[in-house]
Design brief:
The complex is a heterodimer.
Chain A lengths: L2 H34 L5 H13 L2 H12 L4 H10 L7 H25 L3 H9 L4 H12 L1 H17 L2 H6 L10 H10 L3 H29 L1
Helix pairs in contact in A: 1-5, 1-8, 2-5, 3-5, 5-8, 6-7, 8-11, 10-11
Chain B lengths: L5 E8 L5 E9 L3 E5 L6 H9 L6 E6 L2 E6 L10 E2 L7 E4 L11 H7 L6 H14 L15 H14 L4 E5 L7 H18 L3 E5 L2 H7 L2 E6 L2 E7 H6 L4 H7 L2 E12 L2 E6 L2 E6 L9 E7 L4 E4 L9 E13 L2 E7 L3 E7 H6 L7 E6 L5 E4 L3
Parallel strand pairs in B: 3-9, 3-10, 7-8, 8-9
Antiparallel strand pairs in B: 1-2, 1-4, 4-5, 5-6, 10-11, 12-13, 12-15, 13-14, 15-21, 16-20, 17-18, 17-20, 18-19
Helix pairs in contact in B: 2-4, 3-4
Classes of the chains: A mainly alpha, B alpha+beta.
Chain lengths: 221, 371
């Protein structure tokens, strides 16, 4: 592989990792909230979180473009407050990947939390533990495998993301181009050998992630 | 009964479930047994005291502290007060122990000692484990322990924090019979040494007698009788309590001699022979327990038989209950026997009749006095 190809793979891995860091706190909070609490409007939040799983990714990308564009609600605020632009930068890549992988992670983590018997959490409270301590020392360690599996799935999903990324981040070589986008580009340009090479790299990474994730899930049962 | 450290009057109802309503439930300094049939609401009461369930209304007070307060009128919900379990300082041992599976024995004990400096917490763990005979198990995982060891680790975890109140939910129910009998004696000893006000839930009469000072009888979610153990079990206040507690004769007795594993006991004016296997060697005062269905009656002029205990008895009363008859006897102490109607007719039993009551030695259960 050439230097440019290594750089492309490295960039894609970095973006997927950054999106995972964004998904992790939001996803853990959301998953815990859905697994342990009952509140009015819970069903609505559940549906919203899962929506990117069933919507065409391009539609999710379009919504993000609208929100984070310089004239969008969030985008204009970010631009004026922090002088920070999102759309068509690497930040947009992270955002798109995070939006697309969040539902997968929340589903896995929520199931993992639901499988933790509340009796352990209750006992921890009688031993003087507050809610944060209960979460970090009881709930999370006991749900560890399911959460790890969810992280790997989210990471793999992020690596394969195409539709939402191309909408919000475009295809700027060396700036926003990820593996799947580069593969599409290569086929467009008739560089089939190049496309197959990148496809092979993607397949190896995805295979490893799913393999480890399945292994973790099986051992947690 | 000693002065109350905990008082509770509250109502708790799960949606669609039966109502639990305890009225002026008091707990003194010793071990209070919360006794009742399964489904009578014992565990719910215990969980409300621990703060793991929130009653619908009522109040719970410990010492001078209010743990829970909520008046029934919804529009005055401002008066609600709920002290979360972490601030109650109550040690809780659930029926299935709930040992943290991802922590070692020492890790489980240390969990509740976060406020202590590390060195002191380490000492406390070692001291508690030694006290309960668990040295050497520090680095084991809960799944590697026997049932009896798990029970002791759960107790150790609860007491290592030096709680102000100890709550035990059927502490021995999950164990096999030999382990249960052995641990029953040890648990009694530990609870005496701890001197922490303790509430112990059980549905087992012998466990109640062996471990408790006072008893609160719970029936269909209501606390129907409260008092010193032998008093409540010996003189149930009403039929409901009698049906839960009194299918067994309980009589205090004195050990006269122990020879070849057999104890001679003086109960009232009668001498009984019983197995002495589970008795500590220096026991002198015991409760003698004889289940009514283990008592055999024969006519007074009968011949030799294998049961060791032949007691000349006078029939006091004959009460029909369903297909069985409950016969109350005086044989030097009050004794009850369950018979079938046919047997009762054959022996022509009626008040004043003279009979011989037979009980095999292994069916005379001796429990050391709880003091």
């Amino acid at each position: 592989m050439s230097g440019a190809e290594w750089q492309l793979v490295g960039f894609s891995l970095r973006m997927a990792l950054a999106s995972l860091l964004l998904v992790l706190p939001i996803g853990l909070g959301l998953a815990w909230w859905l697994a342990r609490k009952h509140w009015p409007g819970k069903a609505l939040v559940e549906t919203l979180v899962s929506l990117p799983l069933v919507l065409p990714p391009v539609v999710t990308g379009l919504v993000l473009l609208q929100l984070f564009g310089r004239r969008g609600w969030v985008g204009s605020w970010l631009h004026h407050t922090f002088n920070c632009d999102v759309v068509f930068t690497w930040r947009a890549v992270v955002l798109a990947l995070a939006a697309m992988s969040l539902p997968l992670f929340v589903r896995a983590a929520r199931t993992a939390f639901e499988e933790v018997d509340v009796k352990f959490e209750q006992l921890a409270r009688t031993l003087g533990a507050g809610e944060w301590r209960v979460f970090f020392t009881i709930t999370l360690p006991l749900a560890k495998r399911g959460v790890l599996a969810g992280m790997l799935l989210a990471f793999a999903r992020a690596l394969g993301e195409f539709g939402a990324t191309i909408m919000v981040a475009g295809n700027i070589p060396g700036r926003t181009t990820t593996l799947p986008v580069a593969i599409y580009q290569a086929v467009e340009n008739g560089e089939d050998a190049h496309a197959w090479l990148l496809a092979g790299v993607s397949a190896v990474i995805a295979f490893a992630a799913v393999f480890v994730s399945e292994h973790l899930l099986r051992r947690s049962q | 009964m000693s002065t109350a450290v905990l008082t509770a009057t509250f109502r708790k109802q799960f949606p669609g479930g039966p109502e639990i309503a305890v009225d002026n439930f008091c707990v003194g300094r010793g071990v209070t047994v919360l006794f009742g049939a399964s489904g009578s609401g014992k565990t719910t009461v215990l969980r409300c005291l621990a703060g793991l369930e929130i009653p619908n209304e009522g109040e719970i007070k410990f010492g001078g502290e209010v743990w829970f307060e909520q008046s029934g009128r919804r529009h005055t919900a401002k008066s609600e007060l709920f002290l979360p379990p972490r601030l109650r300082g109550a040690g809780f041992v659930p029926q299935d122990y709930a040992l943290f599976p991802h922590l070692t024995v020492a890790g489980n004990l240390r969990y509740g000692l976060k406020e202590l400096p590390a060195a002191e917490a380490g000492l406390r763990v070692a001291e508690t484990l030694r006290w309960l005979g668990l040295e050497g198990l520090e680095n084991r995982w809960p799944r590697e322990l026997s049932g009896g060891q798990q029970q002791r680790v759960a107790l150790a975890r609860a007491v290592a924090r030096r709680p102000r109140l100890l709550l035990l939910d059927e502490p021995l129910a999950a164990l096999d019979t030999p382990t249960r009998l052995r641990l029953r004696g040890e648990l009694r000893h530990w609870l005496r040494e701890l001197r922490i006000p303790t509430i112990l839930v059980t549905h087992d009469r012998q466990e109640a007698l062996a471990l408790g000072d006072d008893v609160v009888v719970l029936h269909h979610g209501l606390n129907v009788q409260h008092g010193a153990l032998p008093e409540v079990f010996g003189r149930p206040a009403n039929l409901a309590v009698a049906e839960i507690t009194a299918v067994e004769t309980i009589q205090s007795g004195k050990i006269l001699a122990i020879r070849e594993g057999l104890a001679t006991v003086l109960a009232g004016t009668a001498r009984l022979t019983a197995l002495a296997l589970d008795l500590p060697p220096d026991t002198s005062e015991v409760y003698v327990c004889i289940r009514a269905e283990d008592v055999i009656l024969m006519q007074a002029n009968s011949v030799q038989s294998s049961p060791r205990n032949h007691l000349a008895a006078t029939v006091q009363a004959v009460n029909r209950k369903g297909s069985l008859v409950l016969v109350t006897l005086d044989c030097g102490f009050p004794l009850t026997a369950w018979l079938t109607q046919a047997a009762c007719d054959e022996l022509a039993l009626q008040a004043g009749a003279q009979v011989v009551a037979l009980v095999k030695a292994p069916q005379v259960h001796l429990l050391p006095f709880a003091r």
